[in-house]
C-alpha cells in the first residue's frame, strides 16, 4: 500500500471516531437497560492518559453515547438467548421454570462485616429524627423475590440465598429481642401468602412484587395503626396488560409479556391524584381520599420509598386522608418537603437488598444523604 493510501485509510477510520467524540455531548444517553445512570464526562489530566486510566475513563463515557448502542445490545442478547439459551448479564440470574432474579438481591446480602446491630442502629436513627418532630414512625422492609420464592432459584443461587436468609434471621431475632417501635416485619406474612395464592406475588421476570404482593404489606401497615381495618380492602382481577419486565430489559432483550392487573376498592372511599413532582425518573406523587357512609380514614401519611413503593399506590392510598409517595429519586422537591411537613405518619419502605447497607451513618443506605436532608426540614419539638 502506498503512503498516501495509508493516509487516506487512516483518515477514513479516524474521522467517524472523531465525529463521535465531538457529537457525544449532543447525544442524549439512555442507560435504563443497564440499570444505572450514564457515565459523566471524566475529570482526567495528562498523567491519566500516560498510565492508561484516562483512555479507559473516556472510553466508558463514549460507550454510553454510541449511536444505536441499545439496538446493537438487543441484537447480541437475542443471539445469546436464542441460540445458546443464555442471559449474558451479570445482574440477571437464571432460575427454574422461566424465572429470573436480580443478582444484587442476593449478592448484597453476602457482603462482609455483617452485624445486625448496625442495621438496627440505622433504623433507630430514622425513628429518632421523625419522633423529634412529633410524628408517628413506621419502617418496613420489602422482602426480595429470592427470599420469598427461593425454590425457583438455580442450585448455586439457592445455596447463596441460604446464607442471606441466615443473616436475615439473625437480624429479625435481634429486632424481637430489642424491638424498635414502628418496625414492621412482613417476611412470614408474605411467605404464607405466596403459598396460599394461586398467582405469583412477584413478577417471574421482574425484580419487583406485584400489586397483589404489595397488598400484603399494605394490610400489615394499616393493621399496625388500626387493627382489623385492612379487612375492608376488596381486590378483583383487572384486564391483563403488556409489560417489559425490568430483568428482561437489563438482559438486553425487549420482549413484552402479559401481566395480571388488580383493582383495589374500599366501600365508601373515593380517592384522587392530588399532585406530582418529578426530579428524576420516578415522581413523588400525592393522593387524597374521602369517605362516606362512615368509612374510617387514617390521618396523613408520607411514604419515603424506592421503586418497591410503586406497587403500593393502588392499595395504600385507600386508607389515609392523604398519601404521598416520596420516591428517593424525586426527594428534592417542594411536594416532598410539603408532604413531610404536613404528615402525621412517616413510613420508610426499603427493598431488602438495601437493608445490608443500613447503619447509623447511612440509615437509608445509598440514599441517606437525600433522606437526611429532607428530614432536616422538619420542625423539631425536643
Describe the structure.
The protein is α/β, with parallel strands linked by helices. The protein is 41% helix and 17% strand. A seven-stranded mixed β-sheet has the order 4-3-13-11-12-10-9. A two-stranded antiparallel sheet has the order 1-2. A two-stranded antiparallel ribbon has the order 5-8. Helix 6 crosses helix 8. About 1% of the residues have low confidence.
Topology, pairings included?
Layout: H1 3-23, H2 46-50, H3 53-63, H4 69-84, E1 92-94, E2 100-102, H5 103-107, H6 116-131, E3 136-142, H7 145-148, H8 155-177, E4 183-184, H9 187-196, H10 211-225, E5 234-237, E6 241-243, H11 246-250, E7 257-259, E8 262-265, E9 269-277, E10 284-291, E11 301-305, H12 313-316, E12 322-327, H13 334-342, E13 345-351, H14 352-355, H15 368-375
Parallel strand pairs: 3-4, 3-13, 11-12, 11-13
Antiparallel strand pairs: 1-2, 5-8, 6-7, 9-10, 10-12
Helix pairs in contact: 6-8
Radius of gyration using CA atoms only = 24 Å
Query: Averaged pLDDT, please?
Result: 87
Describe the sheet with the most strands. Answer: 7 strands, mixed
Through-space gap between termini? 83 Å
**Regions with pLDDT < 50 over 5+ consecutive residues?**
81-85
Shape from CA axes? Answer: globular
Per DSSP, the total helix count is 15
